[in-house]
Amino acid sequence: MTTSADASLPRPTRTGRGGSPLCHSPGAPPASPLIFITSIIIIFVMKIKCTRVGREMPDQQQRRPVGRPPKPGRRAEILDAATEVVAERGLETISLAELAKALGCSTYTLTYHFGTKEQLLAAIVAHVESALQTEIAELAADPGTSGADLLRRYWRGTREPAARSYMRLWLELLVLASRQPERFPGFQERASTGWRALAADILRQRTGSDALATLIVAAVTGLELDLMLDPTPAAADAALEQLITFIEDRGL
């Protein structure tokens, strides 16, 4: 209840700069100085935080880890290791992420060097073909090596566990290329005119017969397939010895 004496007292009015009132509601109670000061402090602190965030964001973006481009010289090393892994696990059953994990690198490293998975597989195909041709050329480097000795040395290498994996990969490629030639363009042609042609040419020089050279290459290829089907090499070994005896009996 307000007495007449209270009503006659002037109500204090807070004014800002130039004498303008801060509170325009005549019936509202005066604002507490503590609340006003606290509000100013909060606004000041928020401005400081926003300024710091604005300054820190570019620094954080600069500190954001970025994949370092691998050394181009590593491509051959990665290709060797990738071919070995794919030979063990197969072409169709391994993803790019699984291959990267097996190699101990990132998918970025693989795509940096090879592009897509299909491009990596194409590089592996070319690598396998090149390795086979190099192996045969090294075996036949000595022109004095007979056809029989050449077959023995080649077969000895074929029986190695690593060689079986590569042969399994080559056969898988051959089947896939026959079904999807557009996926591995030219592989079938290179398979018949690449290392097989090289082997036939080497044998032709020693046998003097195109037909006999082709027969020997086909027989060895069939024995390699038999070796894939039967883990015990006894039967394939015996068959190869028969072929070698046939060659030696003819002085080849």
From TrEMBL:
MF annotations from Gene Ontology: DNA-binding transcription factor activity; transcription cis-regulatory region binding
Keyword Repressor part of the UniProt annotation: yes
Segments of the chain annotated as binding DNA: 95-114
UniProt keyword list: DNA-binding, Membrane, Repressor, Transcription, Transcription regulation, Transmembrane, Transmembrane helix
Region of interest: Disordered: 1-26, 55-74
Recorded superkingdom: Bacteria
Domain HTH tetR-type: residue ranges: 72-132
Cleavable signal peptide: none
Entry's transmembrane regions: 31-48
PANTHER family documented for this protein: HTH-TYPE TRANSCRIPTIONAL DUAL REGULATOR CECR (PTHR30055:SF146), HTH-TYPE TRANSCRIPTIONAL REGULATOR RUTR (PTHR30055)
Record-given protein name: TetR/AcrR family transcriptional regulator
Organism: Actinomadura rubrisoli
